[in-house]
Amino acid sequence: MTGKTARGVLVTLVSVLWLVPTWLVVVNAFTPAEQYTGSPRWWFASPGLFANIRAAFESADVGRGLLNTLLYAVIGAAVAVLIAALASFAVTVMPVRRPGFWFWFIFTGTVLPLQTFLSPLFTGYAATGLYDTQYGMLLIYVALTIPFAFFINRNFMLTVPREISEAAQLDGVNWPSMFLRIHLPLARNALLAAFIFQFTWIWNDLLFGITLSLSPNVRPVTATLADLGGNYSTVGPPVVLAGALLASLPTVILFFVFQRFFVNSLRLTA
């Protein structure tokens, strides 16, 4: 078997492994809850998707969870990417001391398992009044997504010729103007890729959603679906799957809409 054939077989197997559970989720989300027998269906029955979505909204306020998550994902990712872009500009363009130290200091935030932060975060949030607040959720999402966004932006800005910055300095351009008028437009693809990465991570987060929030007005949609999933006897798995299918659509749409920018940025920052 040639290398090309082996790669093709491997890609096909991975695709099948991904498609089978996805297919089961879609099929059973369309299954009317009253027709679910306890065993997953492999083919579509009578359509019940919209009834299941309506039941999810009524049983666990999934709509509110979607709005909360949209707020966290958009604002959290945007703020994190902006801060990461500023830090990247500082360590790659500005004459800061020990830029390598600052790179590793910030990037180390991606090394430790996130579970190690849960206990001190819960204690600190409870002591400061941030627990179960939207401000608290936004704060943790921004803090956790800065390091990886910084990694992407810093790698891209290293590819920008230093002659551009030197010429701007000779023309009397100050650092804020250089960042806003030169480097920020050049880094558009990298910024967009970082935003998509961080938006997706925040949107899919469950760990911090169930740890640092409690009320429906604050909880993200993944935590809301977890609450809904703990109530099988009332709503049934098809309702939970319908809610999960609805919650997954924004990230899928985002990726396909901005796929060209995403791929180009990965190529430039590799």
From TrEMBL:
Lineage: superkingdom: Bacteria
InterPro entries linked to this entry: MetI-like
Record's bilayer topology term: Multi-pass membrane protein
Keyword terms of this UniProt record: Cell membrane, Membrane, Transmembrane, Transmembrane helix, Transport
ABC transmembrane type-1 domain boundaries: 66-258
Compartments, record wording: Cell membrane
Coiled-coil boundaries: none
One Pfam family linked to the record: BPD_transp_1
Transmembrane segments annotated in the record for this chain: 70-94, 101-122, 134-152, 190-215, 235-258
Family according to the record: Belongs to the binding-protein-dependent transport system permease family.
Protein name: Carbohydrate ABC transporter permease
Species of provenance: Streptomyces niphimycinicus
Organism phylogeny: Bacteria, Bacillati, Actinomycetota, Actinomycetes, Kitasatosporales
